[in-house]
């Protein structure tokens, strides 16, 4: 199957920037979509951004559009999330996700992003 390793996250002041990265290994050729989700305390997990590994089409949540950028590097099997103009309400645990051609969802272990005043 596919394994995911996340890096990035941490504490940042409001208005700052942060970059998350996720590297896939294993049967990475089965990956169709790569995405970032987040889950704030007491809330449901929500999609932040996704990108099609083959054609590169992207999709963003309204809350992320214009501030976050999702990108991929097929040669390195990575998907990154560049976050700018961060707000306190962006505080959450961020999860890397891939969906394979078998329609299987695989998740990273999560990375806490804390945005302070």
Architecture overview:
This protein is mostly beta strands. It is 0% helix and 59% strand. The protein has strands at residues 2-8, 10-13, 18-26, 31-39, 46-52, 58-60, 68-73, 78-83, 92-100, 105-107, 111-116. Strands 2, 4, 5, 6, 9, 10 and 11 form a seven-stranded mixed beta sheet that branches. A four-stranded antiparallel beta sheet has the order 1-3-8-7, with no helix packed on it. A hairpin with a 5-residue loop joins strand 5 (46-52) and strand 6. The chain is globular. The mean pLDDT is 96.
Q: Structural class of the helix and strand makeup?
A: mainly beta
Residue-averaged pLDDT: 96
List the helices and strands in order.
EEEEEEEEEEE
How much of the sequence lies in strands comes to over 45%
Radius of gyration: 13 Å
> What's the main sheet like?
7 strands, mixed
Task: Give the uncertain stretches in residue-range form.
Answer: none
Q: How would the global form be characterised?
A: globular
- The helix tally amounts to 0
Helicity level: under 10%
Q: Please report the distance between the alpha carbons of the first and last residues.
A: 41 Å
Q: What's the β-strand tally? A: 11
Oligomer: single chain
What's the topology here?
Layout: E1 2-8, E2 10-13, E3 18-26, E4 31-39, E5 46-52, E6 58-60, E7 68-73, E8 78-83, E9 92-100, E10 105-107, E11 111-116
Parallel strand pairs: 2-11
Antiparallel strand pairs: 1-3, 3-8, 4-5, 4-9, 5-6, 7-8, 9-10, 9-11
């Amino acid at each position: 199957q596919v394994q995911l390793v996340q890096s990035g996250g941490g504490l940042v002041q409001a208005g700052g920037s942060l970059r998350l990265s996720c590297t896939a290994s294993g049967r990475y050729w089965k990956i169709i979509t790569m995405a970032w989700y987040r889950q704030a305390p007491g809330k449901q997990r929500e999609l932040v951004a996704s990108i099609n590994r083959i054609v590169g089409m992207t999709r963003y949540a309204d809350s992320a559009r214009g501030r976050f950028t999702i990108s991929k590097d097929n040669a390195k099997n990575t998907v990154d999330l560049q976050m700018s103009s961060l707000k306190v309400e962006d505080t959450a645990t961020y999860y890397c996700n891939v969906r394979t051609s078998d329609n299987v969802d695989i998740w990273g272990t999560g990375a806490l992003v804390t945005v302070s005043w």
